[in-house]
Amino acid sequence: MQLEKIIQKLKEKGCKITPQRRAVIQSLLNFSKFPTALEVFNDIKATNPDVGLDTIYRNLNLLVEIGIVNSINLPGKDVKVFELSIDGHHHHLVCLNCGQADCLDYCPIDEQGLQTAAGSEFQITGHSLEIYGYCHKCKSALK
């Protein structure tokens, strides 16, 4: 069900539904937490040995660009993780110690105030917010 919903969004945005793109989306659906591009690659490679890592990156970047996938930066690790954006716009809490990323169920950004701060010369089309700190487990270990 979710796969078809996502494919419909892609079609609405004028994107072709290639086997590789379908495989990337299905792989993201397979993960319970946010995978790295390499984890997506390894998942797909198990059933599609001819797929290349550059193809995975290209498809992930396109899906991020059109708003189907969110990219989350993990600090200090020079790594991004990815999630399907099927539940609407939201942000993330990222642990600086273990890298766990959790969804913040709402957007705390005042869009109108943000546009006012940016000024009339800059048109905002979107935003992303990652809040860094320590998860409960890591916070307890720091004491």
What does this molecule look like?
This protein has 143 residues and is of the alpha+beta class. It folds into 2 domains: 1-86, Orthogonal Bundle (Arc Repressor Mutant, subunit A); 89-143, Ferric-uptake regulator, C-terminal dimerisarion domain (Dna Ligase, domain 1). The protein has helices at 2-12, 19-30, 37-45, 53-65, 111-118, 136-142; strands at 69-74, 79-84, 91-95, 101-104, 130-133. Helix 1 (2-12) crosses helix 2 (19-30), helix 2 crosses helix 3 (37-45) and helix 3 (37-45) crosses helix 4. The longest helix has 13 residues, at 53-65. The model has no long low-confidence stretch (mean pLDDT 88).
**Assembly state:** single chain
Low-confidence stretches: none
The biggest sheet amounts to:
3 strands, mixed
CATH class of the largest domain: Mainly Alpha
Rounded to an integer in angstroms, the radius of gyration calculated over CA atoms is: 17 Å
Order of helices and strands: HHHHEEEEHEH
Helix share bin: 40-55%
Instruction: Kindly report how far apart the N and C termini lie.
Output: 45 Å
- The tally of structural domains comes to 2
Q: Mean pLDDT score, rounded?
A: 88
Number of strands: 5
Strand content: 15-25%
> Under CATH, the topology of the largest domain is which?
Arc Repressor Mutant, subunit A
> What is the name of the CATH architecture of the largest domain?
Orthogonal Bundle
Protein name: Zinc-specific metallo-regulatory protein
Family: Belongs to the Fur family.
InterPro entries: FUR (IPR002481), Fur_C (IPR043135), WH-like_DNA-bd_sf (IPR036388), WH_DNA-bd_sf (IPR036390)
Organism: Sporomusa silvacetica DSM 10669
